[in-house]
Design goal:
Layout: H1 3-10, H2 16-43, H3 58-68, H4 72-85, H5 92-99, H6 105-111, H7 132-143, H8 149-158, H9 167-183, H10 189-202
């Protein structure tokens, strides 16, 4: 199906002039984005790579690159890694998000502070709900690590039901914002793959000599 046919199907009663205006606008956006991306590829050779201290662990190096690097290739690789990990949330918060159900408000007051109630969604509370200490034990077994009543209190203070965002997703949001501020256009999976593929494929193949 052509883009023109698709446009008229989505916009009943549209005129040829309206389609021409639409296609011109799209073309300008594509052209502007393409120029940004081509310029960035050229400029990348003049942007210094981030120096990683030898004593840094892998996750520390990733955090340093994500928060301080201004090199598009480094940020693209971190971006793709975060995308691949986004659905694999093995954190304590992720386990709580998977399992926590409404519980009696009196349990919150027991392990938390009444003064915090104004920050917590009432949707978390049900006087007939499963007790918080029981859920802490259940989630500990699910998580295969200790989850306390205090952990659950802190979780509901931070998140409304259904609004939890994993660490990877929060880091992706921060990286996308940094990228836009640094380079003037939005990063995408397609662009990051294109950039990393272009650079990696340009490296000369190493030949192992058997002597």
């Amino acid at each position: 199906m052509s883009s023109k046919t698709n446009f008229f199907q989505r916009n009943e009663g549209a005129t040829e002039a309206e389609y021409a205006q639409f296609s011109t606008s799209v073309g300008q956006k594509i052209d502007t984005s393409h120029k940004h991306q081509q310029l960035l590829r050229f400029a990348m050779q003049f942007i210094p790579e981030t120096v990683i201290p030898d004593f840094f662990e892998a996750h520390e190096a990733d955090d340093l690159l994500r928060t301080t690097s201004e090199h598009p290739l480094e940020l693209s690789r971190i971006y793709l890694t975060l995308l691949s990990e986004e659905r694999c949330d093995y954190s304590k918060e992720g386990a709580i998000n998977d399992c926590l159900r409404p519980f009696p408000k009196t349990d919150f007051e027991r392990w938390g502070d009444k003064n915090w109630l104004s920050d917590v969604s009432n949707a978390w509370f049900d006087k007939e709900g499963s007790p918080l200490d029981v859920q802490a034990m259940e989630i500990s077994e699910y998580y295969n690590g200790e989850v306390t009543e205090n952990d659950l209190v802190e979780y509901v203070r931070a998140w409304k039901p259904g609004k939890y965002r994993s660490v990877q997703k929060r880091q992706l949001d921060e990286l996308e914002t940094r990228w836009l501020d640094l380079f003037g256009f939005k990063i995408s999976k397609r662009y990051a793959e294109s950039l990393t593929g272009l650079v990696d494929e340009s490296k000369p193949e190493e030949i192992v000599v058997p002597f």
